[in-house]
Design goal:
Elements (H helix, E strand, L loop, with lengths): L1 E2 L8 H13 L19 H25 L2 E4 L4 E4 L2 E8 L7 E3 L6 E3 H14 L1 E2 L5 E2 L6 E7 L3 E8 L2 H10 L13 H12 L6 E7 L14 H11 L3 E5 L10 H21 L2 E4 L3 H14 L6 E4 L2 E3 L1 H20 L7
Parallel strand pairs: 4-9, 4-11, 11-12, 12-13
Antiparallel strand pairs: 1-2, 2-15, 3-14, 5-6, 7-8, 9-10
Helix pairs in contact: 1-2, 2-9, 3-4, 3-8, 5-6, 6-7
């Protein structure tokens, strides 16, 4: 048996002290001129009343503390085999992700964000690509999603419930604009690293999909290389997917310089953390990048996680209430004392 809140056991001394105070408290007395009429009584019922009341209060209080500790047993029949991977997807949804790209062949162009969405869903759920290749999916992995523009946001913490939780959040994604515009790569990486700490028993991987141009710069936020150093210290590889591609040759020099800075930032992040930089400028390149990730990050070790627990605190509370009612009934009938 496990306890969700084992610190609740520290309340047990309070129960003992309270029960002992009740037992030792000064009791009321009745003044009577002559007690010889009671000389033949054994006093057994009075002793039962005192010691039984003490024991009953100790049992009821201990049951309540037991319930507060959250007793539970894992349901081993529904355990879920996991291949040792916790994956956090950190996805750029800034205005630059609204740029058009081609998903496949002569199909109409879609936004970078839509291409990233389709490729990520293939990676998680599996399926057939337009080229006819199969993605096996990642049903055994804990996968989460952090999105970012100017500010990072955890859209979905690590979960095994991909179909009803993760998919819904991915399908709702839209590019940010207005006051939310900007690209804050450093803080987004830090947010992803924090969320990965929820799975201490699994190998951790972070996938960063961004053009790498860190445009939201303030005194408080982390720079991308600072966040990459944190990932390196934690032993978490970052796979950097670059959807930006090459700019036209006649682009302004400033745009060319920013594009080069963004690419170099992503390459540095991957190199510092032991990950890999993967160009993904269109649908075909995105699918190939996720296919490489799928091959690289499959751990041979197997662990077991439990999908749910049998909770026993309601039983403990119900037993305590029954005991309390029984104790009250005894003290008003068989164990009743006057005054």
């Amino acid at each position: 048996m496990q306890f969700a809140y084992p610190q609740a056991w520290w309340l047990l001394p309070v129960v003992v002290v309270a029960a002992w105070w009740w037992f030792r408290r000064r009791r009321a007395a009745v003044c009577y001129s002559d007690v010889r009429l009671f000389g033949g009584l054994s006093g057994r019922r009075a002793r039962f009343s005192r010691w039984g009341g003490l024991l009953g209060r100790l049992v009821v209080g201990s049951l309540l503390v037991f319930a507060c500790a959250g007793p539970r047993i894992p349901d081993e029949r529904t355990r879920l085999p996991a291949e040792g991977i916790a994956i956090m997807m950190v996805l750029d949804i800034s205005g630059s992700m609204n740029e058009p790209v081609r998903w496949w062949g002569d199909a109409p162009e879609i936004s970078r964000l839509e291409a990233a969405r389709r490729a990520f869903l293939l990676f998680v759920f599996g399926g057939t690509t337009p080229e006819g290749e199969e993605f096996p999916g990642r049903p055994s992995d804990a996968i989460g999603l952090v999105t970012f523009a100017a500010v990072p946001r955890t859209v979905c913490p690590l979960t095994f419930n991909h179909a009803s939780v993760l998919r819904q959040q991915v399908e709702r994604l839209e590019p940010k604009a207005g006051i939310d515009a900007g690209t804050n790569v450093g803080d987004a990486l830090a947010e992803g690293l924090i969320r990965l700490q929820a799975a201490p028993h699994l190998r951790k991987v972070l996938i960063l999909l961004s053009d790498g141009e860190h445009t939201h710069i303030t005194e408080d936020n982390l720079r991308p290389r600072q966040a990459a150093q944190l990932a390196a210290n934690l032993g978490i590889p970052v796979y950097a997917l670059d959807p930006a591609g090459e700019l036209p040759a006649d682009s302004p020099p400033e745009m060319q310089r920013n594009r080069q800075i963004g690419r170099q930032t992503l390459q540095d992040i991957a190199a510092m953390t032991g990950g890999q930089y993967l160009p993904a400028s269109d649908g075909t390149a995105l699918r190939e990048a996720f296919r490489q990730l799928d091959r690289l990050e499959r751990a041979p070790a197997t662990t077991y996680l439990y999908r749910r627990y049998f909770e026993y605190y309601p039983h403990a509370i119900a037993t305590a209430l029954v005991g309390l009612l029984l104790l009250r009934w005894l003290e008003t009938t068989w164990w009743r004392t006057l005054p």
